[in-house]
Amino acid sequence: MTEFIPEGSRFHALSSPFPMKRGGQLHGARIAYETWGTLAADAGNAILIVTGLSPDAHAASHAGNPAPGWWEPMLGPGKPIDTERWFVVCVNSLGSCKGSTGPASPDPASGQPYRLSFPELSVEDIANAAAEVVRALGIGQLACLIGNSMGGMTALALLLHHPGIARAHINISGSAQALPFSIAIRSLQREAIRLDPAWNDGTYDEAHYPESGMRMARKLGVITYRSALEWDGRFGRVRLDSEQNGDDPFGLEFQVESYLEGHARRFVRNFDPNCYLYLGRAMDWFDLAEYGGGEAIAGLAKIRVQRALAIGANTDILFPVEQQQQIADGLRAGGAQTQFIGMDSPQGHDAFLVDYDRYGPAVRGFLDTLPPH
Amino acid sequence: MTEFIPEGSRFHALSSPFPMKRGGQLHGARIAYETWGTLAADAGNAILIVTGLSPDAHAASHAGNPAPGWWEPMLGPGKPIDTERWFVVCVNSLGSCKGSTGPASPDPASGQPYRLSFPELSVEDIANAAAEVVRALGIGQLACLIGNSMGGMTALALLLHHPGIARAHINISGSAQALPFSIAIRSLQREAIRLDPAWNDGTYDEAHYPESGMRMARKLGVITYRSALEWDGRFGRVRLDSEQNGDDPFGLEFQVESYLEGHARRFVRNFDPNCYLYLGRAMDWFDLAEYGGGEAIAGLAKIRVQRALAIGANTDILFPVEQQQQIADGLRAGGAQTQFIGMDSPQGHDAFLVDYDRYGPAVRGFLDTLPPH
């Protein structure tokens, strides 16, 4: 079991015991986070970023860790999320393996990794843990809460269950409930991992690691994170050099196959398989309709936030843009002054990690209109 | 190695040797086919149907096999493809395992199944084999050639390489070339099969069968054959009875997961894994741009057919509707009187197998306008 903790991470010790929504509790758990900029004396300039399934808290470089972060072009001095104005916090999700407590972390009761003995994880637990970090940093109310992808779910849970935690909200490629296409994809990813004999009911180690299962799961993820349109332009039918192909009639032949292989290779040993299972299932379970009498839109309307921006990509097949439109509609019904932007980005669900020409100005424009604290 | 031959199949012995596009040749190979209706004295009322990846030649029930076929609502007396007017032939593709020769068939040289010694299969080979059946039945020119999905590729190859083989053509959910998203999906399906230790480089048997790999491959296929929109309405977030779920935290929980499982279970032992690999790769390789100086549209424009109808579903993510629009545009550039219909069917790539309210009238309407022979 490996945890992958960025340099310069800071940690918040969660309240202990930390109760979990679906039952059970954690003892001695922690959340890894990083910060940028300076918190104002009145703590009024704080932004929290909650992430998608796989990122760590290292959203951008800083003095404690100069390596580029996963949202480097968006976050820093003079950038769309301008750290000369804002104090920014990014948390690694509870249940992940990037410094926060999750299935790969040692269970203090035994000293051994939790593995499948980790309690069932829900998006609400991830949100509750993030809320503790906000409070611990002395932030009474966030100026803005930003969530991408799974983080869009986490942000909605945060807003609903911690009323007043933020004045404004940006939801990017998010969703108020998991729908069956995305559940099917994640179910198949989990099946790939669980079918790998090396997964061994979660008791793998570095020498016996479910590499094939993770590779399949990651490739399937990448396929659904992008779009056919982008790939037509990017890869077309370009083939690899014949020498890469070799004699295997079913080996890699097209550039798109090699691209997937490269993505998978970079991922499989850098994310814990059990954490992947837990976080994917948490997304499947997420459903704001639970709080809205069976209607997601009614659950959204229970959220109180002053201003909101929902952004989606028209090419997203995993969290279709109708889901971000629904978030905007629901938050508006709850009283927020709300804007929705459907981006013509070709990059699908991942557009917010690629299409900075569109996402940068949209996020900057919204933040610029927030009143001075 | 198992072949799955419908009752009442007829067989055509291919010319021997039968040369394959990418090298090698087959000896003593055959094509399974079925027919409906009566061939006119002038043989002018013939329709050929070429199929998608998995179907057999049993498109509909007939006296020799009363079981419903895979296109039962479309084909029969008074139905959209009216067998009181038309003599209809459906062939099982070369390389399949439903009666035609393929990797699961015995190699006459050894008496053992070909397995991976089967020569590389191309869509053009499938088309050439189908053309032989047409000629052997005494049909000089088809009144109409109908191809669905992979069969849409086969049909285009037939028209291009056998000029004059058909007066009219209906291309449903077809494509003039494989694009990277669909290549990626099929590549991942093949990887799932090949990673299954029981695949064993193609030398499995009934007792040691790559069941898990085939299950993964089929589930991934079904996910891409339908659409998120359809599943939202059909499954939503409905859960299974808790007793089906059991205690496994990663077991089946949502209806959509059970639906995929059911589809997979019905498929995995009814289609030969090696044939699946060969047919998928044949689709990846298919590219009419080879015949059009690098442009698919120019390849299409080399086809000579009098009238054509291209139909697609707006929700198809595997063969997007732009590909059927391209087929219409290219055939029109080649001189055909051409119609394109983008259907608002929610069922995605598989809509032609489900949405008979839309596809029935479209096919019937086109066939009704064909001149009497």
TrEMBL record, chains A, B:
Q: Which GO terms describe its biological process?
A: cysteine biosynthetic process from serine; homoserine metabolic process; methionine biosynthetic process
Indicate yes or no for the key word Nucleotide-binding: no
Chain ranges passing through the membrane: none
Question: Which reactions are catalysed by this chain?
Answer: succinyl-CoA + L-serine = O-succinyl-L-serine + CoA
- UniProt pathway annotation: Amino-acid biosynthesis; L-cysteine biosynthesis; L-cysteine from L-serine: step 1/2
Q: Which residues form the active site?
A: S149, D316, H349
A single GO CC term for this protein reads: cytoplasm
Sequence ranges assigned to domain AB hydrolase-1 in this UniProt record: 70-353
Important for substrate specificity: region residues:
52-55
Q: Which Pfam families match?
A: Abhydrolase_1 (PF00561)
Site (Important for acyl-CoA specificity) at R186
Entry superkingdom: Bacteria
Top-rank EC class of the record's enzyme: transferase
NCBIfam families listed in its UniProt record = homoserO_Ac_trn, PRK00175.1
On assembly, the entry states: Homodimer.
Q: Would you identify the family this protein belongs to, as annotated?
A: Belongs to the AB hydrolase superfamily. MetX family.
Function noted in UniProt: Transfers a succinyl group from succinyl-CoA to L-serine, forming succinyl-L-serine.
What is the protein name given in its UniProt record?
Serine O-succinyltransferase
What species is this protein from? Stenotrophomonas daejeonensis
What's the source species' lineage? Bacteria, Pseudomonadati, Pseudomonadota, Gammaproteobacteria, Lysobacterales
